[in-house]
Amino acid sequence: MPSGGGKPLDRSIVEGPLARAVWMLAWPTMLQNLIGGLQGVVDHALVGHFVGYAGNAAIGVAIQIFIVVIVFVISVFSGMGVLVARFAGANDPDKVNRTVYQAFLAAVALWGLLLAPLGWVLAPSLLGVVNAAPAVRVEALPFLRIMFVGSLGMLLFFMVSGALRAAGDARTPLRLGILLTVLNIACNVAFITGLGPLPRLGTAGAAVGTAVAGIVVSGIAGYLLLSGRLPVTWHRGMSWRPDWGIIRELFRFGLPTGVQGIAMNIAGVLLLRFIGSLAQSAEAQAAYAVGYTELFSFITWTSVGLMSAAATVGGQNLGAGRPERAVHGVHVAAGLGLGLAAAIGVLFLTIPRSLLGLFGMTDPVVVGLGAQLLAFLSVSGLFVTVALTYTGGLQGTGDTRSPLYISIVSQIVVPLGLCTVFQATRGLRPADIWTAILLGHITRCALSVGRFRQGKWRGIKVEMEPA
What we know:
Layout: H1 12-15, H2 18-50, H3 53-89, H4 93-129, H5 134-149, H6 152-166, H7 171-193, H8 203-227, H9 244-276, H10 281-295, H11 297-319, H12 323-350, H13 352-357, H14 364-396, H15 401-425, H16 430-454
Helix pairs in contact: 2-3, 2-7, 2-11, 2-12, 3-4, 3-5, 3-6, 3-9, 3-10, 3-11, 4-5, 4-6, 4-9, 5-8, 6-7, 6-8, 7-8, 9-15, 10-14, 11-12, 11-14, 12-14, 14-16, 15-16
């Protein structure tokens, strides 16, 4: 195996000024997420104009289902991030490289054996679970099937990006992310609209463009790993044989995060089911797809960048034997998140109709429901950003189980329980669902902060056999 002959690991995360370390890790990921989010904006805008709001609802519903399934594979990368951050903090590049390579092997196997074949077969049944309207289902089925089969490139991009961020390099993932977004937008415009000799695929064209762009960028990322220019390095001729000791650790730390993601997204799917039961279900699903999936993502994208920074700072400093720096790093990340969420929330309150109009939303009912949802989300964003940064602190230090339990309570029990009660007692209204979302976010914030402050993550150990 390689002995870490690539770019040296960045020691400023465990030795330099902490606020600067958090920001240098966070801003490239935040910018990458914001730029990457343009893909969804373009998809929804084009589909809204060429197909109509049924196409917008189809993408929102299909993506929610896709995330529920794919998050199991991505959980391997969460475990990888815990190990890479810990080994980078201990200045052990050999273990960093071995961990990332084994995560790659595991992800390819899971995609080929489970994700692609089962996703194709089960896609119709999954759409039935969310009560998708007939017009929405027609648009969503080919989109969802293509996303499952063509997801390998996206998975490998997530893997390389997560590994490099955990090792302290947040700028290379930014460059790869910008390239991915540019290719995505170009391919999606071409396939959605039928540019030149290409067929006009409508909603399905967004999935085709995503698959093509992902394969191209993941190939470039693989070349960079083999080039020796990154803090994570592979070499030609590495064995395809799995190292079960590393893979066990990947799943020990990663599976709770994967189950957490599944639980949260199943809750999202079930929430779509409640939305689908409303009198104006297609309009409400379109408002949710744009308001929550796209516009609210401007808060979650930035917060996920801060969560990643908190995880890296927490994991590396714990690996270096400096847990108090981990605590301070999470506090810094949460403060930055609150400022950004407040600024975006003001836009939700002051210009909601203009924001919705960017996605071709002109139907009066859809616009009214969307503006109402954005008012609730302007408050939710404050709690979500704090919850995510403290979740990053927990996960980065190896406590991946607590966020799972917190998510079950805050993302399933609270919002779905409230919707069930409202539906059974007086009939469900859109504002009831938006209220349930807000209360779930408040609960998640309170539990995440409380658990991190208990400090039990300080004693978590990582076990790994020598090469």
